[in-house]
Write a structure and sequence with these properties.
This protein folds into four domains: 73 residues, no CATH class; 89 residues, Winged helix-like DNA-binding domain superfamily/Winged helix DNA-binding domain (Arc Repressor Mutant, subunit A, Orthogonal Bundle); 68 residues, no CATH class; 217 residues, Vaccinia Virus protein VP39 (Rossmann fold, 3-Layer(aba) Sandwich). Helix content is 50%, strand content 12%. It has 24 helices and twelve strands. One of its GO terms (molecular function) is O-methyltransferase activity.
Length: 465
């Protein structure tokens, strides 16, 4: 069988398998016309592992069938896709079309809401529709489909116009995340080649010497920059954007992986660099027998206080949850933690700075303290990774040839995220081998890896060396 035939067979067999499993649950697998809803979203999440090799084979089939020049040009132009998504979100297009209903709305009326040039907006929406985001039902008339509906806040458009900075409050964070990612891509990506080839900056590990700083003409880190008063909208957006993956699988992150439920009553969990506390909020809903401290920068803690008072004020009032301003590059003030959790923290920092964070936690740890690093793990794109397999959870099943070895990695966005992090702050996603060395250098031993299906991050459970 040729490689081309094998790819086609993987797609055909995979689709049949997905359809059969959907039928067993009496829920048809959603199409672009299927409205978003908890049941259909849960089905897609539950069948993500089955879908991954099908999607990977489809991408590989495209790469095989297209002329190399056409394929490369398609990818090169994809940078404009993120910018177009940012425009659609900033112009409130998904919610405008949600209110318009299934008949859709003429681009003149869509553009009038935010006083955008209708001709330019129409071209952007048509580009997005060519990538199956929105649908053009008649010339210049657009409506939402399943994918674009995921960008909706669900709020009345008039309310959003009255208070733009609050438009993501109370949402699942997806719209905020897409908006933030689009902006980061545009700001850093354009300067990446020049920045990396500059001997003065190309080897830097400093968080304020990345391509993003060159583009923005600032020496501030992105975190310092967003705390300036004139960037209050971005700071609000960042805090809510970090909620997207938590809300998508709140039950999974709180009940699977590390054994939170087995911790003795009153055990202290410290969410280091925990932002506004989205992860702790998921844990606290499921594990009321524990105590929690959420640590982050003082400006972020203020945002978090508003979130907790609006959603779970009783836990704050009873001191079950405390929000604490703390610089994790300084000495860790809590010396009696049962668990230190770092969720999406290590990928924000180069090795030089990630080592400082981990070392301060090691200095504050008791012999029984556990460290749970929650982050994405980049898979090698070869079949022999050479990573230690004696660590439980380290080994990962491989996809059959001719697919790349890890189908979920080949179809996911974590490699794109890796380059985004490089552009914004000289930081990165890491392979498992890289994590093992980083942790060891800071005094931690990786005990096991708790695996989750993408897009959820993995959990690395560590103990003091």
């Amino acid at each position: 069988m040729s490689a081309l035939d094998a790819l086609v067979q993987i797609i055909a067999n995979g689709v049949k398998d997905i359809q059969a499993k959907s039928a067993q649950r009496d829920t048809p697998y959603p199409t672009q016309d299927t409205p978003l809803g908890p049941e259909s979203e849960r089905l897609q999440s539950d069948l993500a592992a089955e879908a991954a090799p099908v999607v990977a084979a489809a991408w590989q089939l495209i790469a095989t069938l297209k002329h190399p020049q056409s394929y490369l040009l398609d990818l090169a132009f994809l940078s404009f896709l993120s910018g177009s998504l940012s425009v659609a979100e900033a112009a409130y297009v998904p919610d405008v079309l949600r209110e318009a209903g299934t008949k859709g709305l003429h681009v003149n009326d869509i553009a009038a809401v935010k006083n955008v040039d209708a001709g330019k907006l129409g071209r952007i929406l048509r580009y997005l529709a060519s990538r199956h985001i929105f649908e053009e039902v008649t010339p210049d008339v657009f409506r939402n489909n399943r994918i674009s509906s995921a960008l909706c806040t669900g709020k009345p458009v008039q309310e959003m116009l009255g208070s733009p900075i609050d438009r993501w409050d109370g949402t699942n964070g997806v719209a905020a995340l897409i908006s933030m990612t689009g902006e980061n891509n545009q700001w850093g990506n354009a300067w990446l080649a020049e920045h990396l080839l500059d001997p003065a900056t190309g080897h830097s590990q400093e968080p304020n010497e990345a391509a993003w700083q060159r583009a923005m003409r600032t020496k501030l880190t992105v975190f310092d920059w967003m705390e300036l008063p004139e960037h209050a909208l971005y700071l609000r957006k960042f805090g809510i954007a970090m909620r997207a993956n938590t809300n998508a699988a709140e039950d999974a992150i709180a009940t699977r992986g590390f054994e939170w439920a087995s911790l003795p009553a009153g055990s202290l969990v410290v969410d280091v660099g925990g932002g506004v506390g989205n992860f702790t909020m998921a844990l606290a809903k499921a594990h009321k027998h524990l105590r929690y401290v959420v640590q982050d920068r003082h400006a972020v803690v203020k945002e978090g206080e508003q979130l907790w008072k609006a959603n779970m004020p009783d836990l704050i009032d009873r001191s079950t949850v405390q929000l604490q301003g703390h610089d994790f590059f300084a000495e860790q003030p809590i010396k009696n933690a049962d668990v230190f959790a770092l969720r999406y923290v290590t990928h924000n920092w180069s090795d030089k700075y990630a080592n400082k964070i981990l070392s301060h936690l090691r200095d504050a740890a008791q012999p029984t303290t556990k460290l749970v690093v929650i982050d994405h793990i980049s898979d090698y794109m070869c079949r022999d990774s050479g990573t230690a397999t004696d660590i439980p959870g380290a080994a990962k099943p491989q996809a059959p040839e001719p697919l790349l070895p890890h189908a979920d990695s080949a179809t996911g966005w974590k490699y794109s995220m890796d380059i985004c992090m490089m552009s914004v702050a000289n930081c990165q996603e890491r392979t498992l081998g890289h994590f093992i060395e980083l942790l060891k250098d800071a005094g931690w031993k990786l005990e096991r890896v708790c695996r989750f299906e993408p897009p959820l991050p993995q959990q690395l459970v560590c103990s003091p060396l």
